[in-house]
Aspartate aminotransferase
Amino acid sequence: IFTAVPRAPPVAVFKLTADFREDGDARKVNLGVGAYRTDEGQPWVLPVVKKVEQMIANDNSLNHEYLPILGLPEFRANASRIALGDDSPAIKENRIGSVQSLGGTGALRIGAEFLRRWYNGNNNTATPVYISAPSWENHNSVFVDAGFKDIRTYHYWDAAKRGLDLQGLLDDMEKAPEFSIFILHACAHNPTGTDPTPDQWKQIAAVMKRRFLFPFFDSAYQGFASGSLDKDAWAVRYFVSEGFELFCAQSFSKNFGLYNERVGNLTVVGKDADNVQRVLSQMEKIVRTTWSNPPSQGARIVATTLTSPQLFAEWKDNVKTMADRVLLMRSELRSRLESLGTPGTWNHITEQIGMFSFTGLNPKQVEYMIKEKHIYLMASGRINMCGLTTKNLDYVAKSIHEAVTK
Ligand code: PLP
């Protein structure tokens, strides 16, 4: 009965890691992975997470009963609070709600499913959904799988100037049909590492408001862009202060290093409390048939950390450790390429923010890096700065130089 099933293509980023593992060359480097690595090239369990895990293990009041369908209340409330800010007008006015989800992906998926069912007409699969060009490749798939039929891209990356194409983006918003959905990266845009400035966000918000466009923020790297949780949430908070109704999908995979615990949160900001409660009641139905109720361990770790001033301070310090290492690798790579005299400009390496950098290497150069140099990176030229270490920097810089000059 399964003989006619075609084989689906592998997921690029996981395939790259599998190829890297199989590569026997001693010089090999993985710049494709979407996770933090230490200067020894190892995964990092945040010290605050280790500490809280022990507290949880020793807490005899905890058990493994089901959580509520919408998740752990103290996790949901505090996750939304760090996205929207302590003095968010929407929180004060009691017009926010949230759903604990399986990672940021789960938050996007529940949000997308809800929008298809209830936004802009019931089960309206024709509402255009706009995704930045380029974007994290799963955005497209999540909205396709949720049933949306009209997925479009909006201008974002200007390859020639290696920066944001603000005019292209604003033009696309002007032309988009009213009520279109726009997926916006809250900070540390994946894969380009290029965010709008506050002033540019203001221009974006003004057009979106005038054109009745729906903002669906994806916040997967809060703390990674600037090292400050508040700064990295600026765009979301500004939109809320402008009176938008919006969704914000949060992932705690990167900023807590809890990749495999699947900790995410979907915040809904609505018009009033009653409105939000009705939305949540529908989301509860969606969760019930999707994963029924979420896992507790990651949510407990995050909730415990966010509710203790001392643990919260420790966490911010841990996030800063990660963000600082990324910054160091950026400046070290740039200075090496500049001293090698590698053709082109390399200021974008330090100007881009977050974990990723869009190097500007073309697919042929990427192929050369992989095949000849055993340095693994995405075909788009995206590299994860955390794949760089003080030990492999020289080799990577020289290899990029050769790829560009050969
Ligand atoms: N959104 C973006 C932009 C991402 O880069 C990622 C992960 O790479 C996610 C969402 C999903 O994160 P999670 O692993 O928590 O599902």
Observations:
- The chain has a mean pLDDT of 96.
- Residues 34, 103-105, 136, 185, 190, 218, 220, 251, 253, 264 surround pyridoxal-5'-phosphate (CB under 6 Å).
